[in-house]
Amino acid sequence: MKDKEQFFLKIYNLGILKFGHFTLKSGMNSPIYIDLRPIASRPDLLIKLSDLLLNEVPPHTFELICGVPYAALPIATALSLRSNIPLIIKRKENKGYGTKKMIEGIYKKGQKCLIIEDVITSGDSLLKTVIDLEKEGLIIKNILSILDREQGGIENIKNKGFKIRSLFRIGEVLKILEKKNLLKEKEIHIIKFFLQKKYIKNIQKKRISYEEKKEKIYHPIGKKLIEIALKKKTNLIFSADLIYSKKILELVNLIGDKICGLKLHVDIISDFSFSFINFLKKISLKKKFLLFEDRKFCDVGTTNYLQLHHGIHKISSWADVITVHVLAGSKSIENLNIPSNIGLITISEMSSYGRLSDDNYIRKALNISLKNSKVIGTVAQRKVDNRLLLFTPGIHFSDSIKNYKGNSYIHPNQAFIKKNCDFIIVGKAIYQSDNPKIVAENYRKAGWIAYENSF
């Protein structure tokens, strides 16, 4: 402890603690600002910091090191040199040219990566780094931060299922500075008062229940889907990516009691007919589930309208829910002229490796989703606003098909506990199984238990 205390006093003399009125990266207003970047100008302190960090996490527990951009990058670099463990670099955003990679460096899927953060407040930027690294197939076992502001960030990260340690806590360093008479009485009062307020950003709150979410969802189809889920105790949507109507009807008759929604791609059905749709509607009414047409409309408004209402499929005449991309902008879905008994699901973030959507695009897509009254939810790989239902595809119990034809897969527990999703979408795990009814029940049960355990 004495070693750590002496180190902190040295970096304090660099002016890392400032008083005033600051807006932090998390959006929080704060009377104090902690800036550890001056340490980068002191190689001796970077070396000492690396040694202290290595005492917290043994080097044999990770194969790569990554710093949260950009303040933690010099620290991660020093730690890499000190431990002789490779460094990878996470970009804040796609640079738009060259390789267009978000992660730079040499790595392979399945490697364990240690993440370094400088100061943790809400944990938002840290979680974004975690998401991008996991998309690349890397495993996050340990996270280290230099200083914890004790404002909910550590708890937020731990609630997502990650191990995280901090070298210093703000309360701990306050005692060190008090003991050395390095703070004015007014400054001590400001810090203590601020910490006592426990001003924690809403994102750190645990997920809300279906009952609570139903009050925030205004569209009748969104409410109906939640009602079905609660009544049947299922958040499972079956993705019937099959090309023959007879096979789809057989499967739906078998597993209709286990699901709250059936997702179709009608344009792949070789023998599509409206007699098939009529049979499907009867089964959906009897077994109480909604019909999702996963058309992913992605054109200008006029074309989207024609594809929805016309053609041989006449999707608007039978679908309860349709999916749409918003790549063409908000206007592309504003004038679809759909009745109130059809809800929209936007595609904000797909589950495929190499997807082109970056954080900036995803934020814009979510913003469009929130502003359109027809939208009931979105497909994404992260937590979203509680006014949207979150649908998570790529669900599978097995880790052996993590990159099947460019798609990544996750367990139901990850979907609910780490991503706070509301509905899971399962396809080939069910329709390729020898006993779809039993497998569907296994996913129904796992999804419901994961939802209940996510509080």
Describe, in short, the structure shown:
With 455 residues, the protein is of the alpha/beta class. It is built from 17 helices and 16 strands.
Characterise the protein shown here:
By secondary structure, this protein is of the alpha/beta class. The protein has 17 helices and 16 strands. Strand 13 (343-347), helix 14 and strand 14 form a beta-alpha-beta unit. It is elongated, with a radius of gyration of 25 Å.
SSE blueprint:
Blueprint lengths: L1 H11 L4 E7 L5 E6 L8 H14 L7 E4 L5 H11 L3 E4 L12 E2 L7 E9 L3 H12 L3 E10 L4 H7 L3 E7 H10 L5 H13 L12 H7 L3 H13 L3 E4 L5 H11 L5 E4 L9 H14 L2 E8 L3 H9 L11 E4 L6 H4 L8 E5 L11 H13 L3 E5 L9 E4 L19 H7 L4 E4 L1 H4 L4 H18 L2
Parallel strand pairs: 3-4, 3-6, 6-7, 7-8, 9-10, 9-16, 10-11, 11-12, 12-13, 13-14, 14-15, 15-16
Antiparallel strand pairs: 1-2, 4-5
Helix pairs in contact: 1-2, 2-3, 8-9, 10-11, 15-17
Pfam family, one: Pribosyltran
Enzyme class: transferase
Protein name: Orotate phosphoribosyltransferase
Q: Which features does this protein show?
A:
39% helix, six-stranded mixed sheet, multifunctional enzyme, 2 domains, eight-stranded parallel beta barrel, 455 residues, decarboxylase, lyase, Aldolase_TIM, alpha/beta, EC 2.4.2.10
